[in-house]
Specification:
58% strand; 0% helix; 7 strands
């Protein structure tokens, strides 16, 4: 979690973003498909996601993230 966003790794279904602005009504915001997500690490200024032998770095946007870089392992 970071702020009002919840990030969920869903394997081959990708990375899912949810709004938890209202904790009693968590709503899906976006699904990033075509990636395999295994673990996500929300940092202060960036979101790191690990999957399919690659590290993905995302920039936080309002109710979204944008890919900054990738690094193949």
């Amino acid at each position: 979690m970071k702020g009002n966003m919840l990030f969920v790794c869903d394997g081959t279904a990708g990375l899912k973003l949810f709004s938890k602005a209202d904790p009693l009504d968590v709503k899906p915001v976006k699904t990033i498909k075509d990636i395999q997500s295994k673990d996500v690490i929300p940092l202060q200024n960036a979101l790191l996601m690990i999957g399919d032998n690659t590290i993905y770095q995302y920039e936080y946007l309002e109710n979204d993230v944008q890919l900054i870089s990738t690094f193949s392992l």
